[in-house]
Each structure stands twice: as C-alpha cells, then as structure tokens.
Design goal:
The chain contains nine helices and eight strands. With 220 residues, it is an alpha/beta fold. It starts with a strand and ends with a helix. The model has no long low-confidence stretch (mean pLDDT 98). The structure holds D-xylitol-5-phosphate and zinc ion. Zinc ion (ZN) binds next to strand 2.
C-alpha cells in the first residue's frame, strides 16, 4: 500500500482555511486537530468548524481528537462528516466500545497514544481499530522536533499488525518532515501527518508529493 500523506491544518492559516484546504488536493486526507485545552494545553476548533471543513475539503477528513471524554464526543465528529475519527487511549473509558460505535456509524476508528503511553495493551485488540496513531511529539502543538525514541514503538506495532493479519493502518504524527519520514517509513508507519513541513513549504502540493516519494522509497 502506498504511503498516505495527511497534512495537518494546525499549521494552516485559519482565516484562509478554504484556500489552505484547496492547496492540499494532492493529499490523501486532511488531518484536523481538535484540542479542548483540557486534554492538551491548547485550544483549536470544534464541531461546527469540522462540519464546514467537511463540506469544502477536496480530500476526506482524518480527525485527531485531543479532548477529554472521547466516549461522549467522538461519535459527534463522525456525524459532522469525518471519514476517520481518532481518539486518545488516555481519554476514553471504553476504547473498544467507542471504536465499534464509530465503525457502526460508517467511519474509520483510530486509537492514539501519547509518547509515554505503552502500545502493548492495544496489540491484542488490533482488529478493533482501523488505525493506531503513535504520537512522536507531546500532543498540543505543531513544529516540535521528532522524538527518535518512538521508532522501536513503531516497529513493534508494525510487527504485531503483520503477525495478527489485521488491516490496521499505522499513523505517525509529530515532527514528520523530509529528514525524518524515511526512518519512520522504514520502521513501519504507512500514514504520515505533517503540519509545519507541508504548510511551511513554498510549494505545498510539491511538498506533499516529495514526502510521499521519500516514504514510498523507504519502505522495507
Ligand atoms: C500535535 C498535532 C499534530 C501537529 C503536527 O499535537 O497532533 O497533528 O499538527 O505538527 P508538525 O507536523 O509540525 O509536527
Ligand atoms: Zn494530530
């Protein structure tokens, strides 16, 4: 499967969001970071804006919820038009029940892990999730540097996916750029979120294609 490149609009210009969405038509999904200033110390956007983004985006929505009480809120993001909804393991009471509810609503269900959270409890449940998101920065802000120590966690997750035969995608978010994406792809990720790398580029579409080529060229 070719690498998927999901630009994060956290690094877009929120006053020119429709323009900045149109600029990523070459991407696979648009990554939408929802932050509540409780689960993470930052505040972004919520349901009404996600609903509008879904109406104008040239690509489907990959919503990353960095919010408390995901059990209550995640299904609302499915209803708002997301194609994929990822909630944090640390912010849900019943991740399997929530993933099943999301899938029953016709969206892909992802589970995310902070850098210090262990992936092992998820590895026996891979069939229940369409995606595992390994955070490679502390969630909350764009433009941070990639945590190299996460590469073994990505490798272990890829190995478990292969052994289980599950079709779960493995996403990496945080510090993905030209100088890191090859190592991350080699470790086994197949979905790449990039905020500052994409929106900081002079040629946004060209950067998406460059990142995809670098990832595809690095797959073992
Ligand atoms: C951080 C967000 C990321 C962020 C990544 O909490 O989840 O999606 O936009 O930004 P970069 O690619 O700049 O590290
Ligand atoms: Zn994110």
């Amino acid at each position: 499967m070719p690498a998927l490149i999901n630009p994060s609009i956290l690094s877009a210009d929120f006053v020119n969001l429709q323009r900045d969405l149109a600029a990523i038509a070459a991407a696979d999904f648009v990554h939408v970071d929802v932050m509540d200033n409780h689960f993470v110390p930052n505040l972004t956007l919520g349901l009404p804006i996600v609903h509008r983004i879904a109406q104008v985006s040239p690509v489907p929505l990959d919503v990353h919820l960095m919010i408390d009480d995901a059990d209550r809120w995640a299904p609302e993001y499915a209803a708002a038009g997301a194609a994929s909804v990822t909630f944090h393991a640390e912010a849900t009471q019943a991740p399997v029940r929530l993933a099943r509810e999301l899938r029953a609503n016709g969206v892909r269900a992802g589970i995310a892990l902070r850098p210090a959270s262990s992936v092992e409890p998820v590895l026996d449940l891979l069939d229940e999730f369409d995606m595992v998101l390994v955070m490679t920065v502390e969630p909350g802000f764009g433009g941070q540097s990639f945590i190299e120590g996460m590469l073994p966690k990505i490798r272990r997750t890829r190995q478990a996916i292969e052994e289980s035969g599950a079709s779960t995608w493995l996403q990496v978010d945080g510090g993905v750029a030209r100088d890191t994406i090859g190592r991350i792809a080699q470790a086994g990720a197949n979905v790449f979120v990039a905020g500052s790398a994409v929106y900081g580029a002079a040629d946004i579409g060209g950067e998406i294609n460059a990142l995809r080529l670098l990832a595809d060229g690095s797959v073992a």
